[in-house]
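In this supplementary section we document a worked example of the pipeline. Step one takes a protein sequence of length 127 as its only input; no multiple sequence alignment statistics are reported here. Step two produces a three-dimensional model, which step three serialises into structure tokens for compact storage. The input and output of this example are shown verbatim.
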Amino acid sequence: MVDDDLWMLIEPLLPPWPERSPGPRPVADRLCLQGILYVLHNDIAWQLLPLELGFGSGQTCWRRLERWQQAGVFDHLHRILLAELNAAGELDWSRACVDGSHIRAKKGVPTPVRRRSTGARLAASTT
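The serialised model returned by step three reads:
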């Protein structure tokens, strides 16, 4: 699934595995990446990743994905791939779209004032 050229781009971005990590020897990073891609491509739950494929368990792949995400691997890979595609003239920037979903829309607008409720309240306990 992950060809050698793509792996050569990804492998240097991955954080090193701790020398003295507890537990059994970890599944190879390339196999975990293939397991991650398998789960995402087939839109299945992590628990349903077949062990027969040799990618490790779904839990292992999920933990590796989380570790790589926190290390910024995919953001860095995205920038590298965009730069390579741009250098090859394969990107049409006239069709680019800026995603504003991460920008707060209420900047500078005061928050609404909390008002007292006029609804019915439970009676106070007399016991």
